[in-house]
Amino acid sequence: MRNISDTIARLSAMQGKTAFSRQSHPDSLSDLAEFGTNPGALRARFYAPENLPRGAALVVVLHGCTQTAAGYDHGSGWSRLAAEQGFALLFPEQQRANNPNLCFNWFVPEDVARDRGEALSIRQMIEAVVRKHGLDRQRVFVTGLSAGGAMAAAMLATYPEVFAGGAIIAGLAYGSASTIPEAFDRMRGYGGPTPAELQRRLVQASPHQGNWPKISIWQGTADQTVAPSNADSLVAQWQSVHRATGGADRTETVNGQTRQVWCDADGNEVIEKYAIAGMGHGTPLKTGGEDGLGNAAPFMLDVGISSTRRMATFWNLAGRGARGEAHPAAGSAHPAADTALRTYIAPEKSRPARLEPAEQPRPGGSRASAGIGKTIEDALRAAGLMR
Question: Taking the domains of the chain in order of start, what are their residue ranges?
Answer without folding.
Answer: 4-382
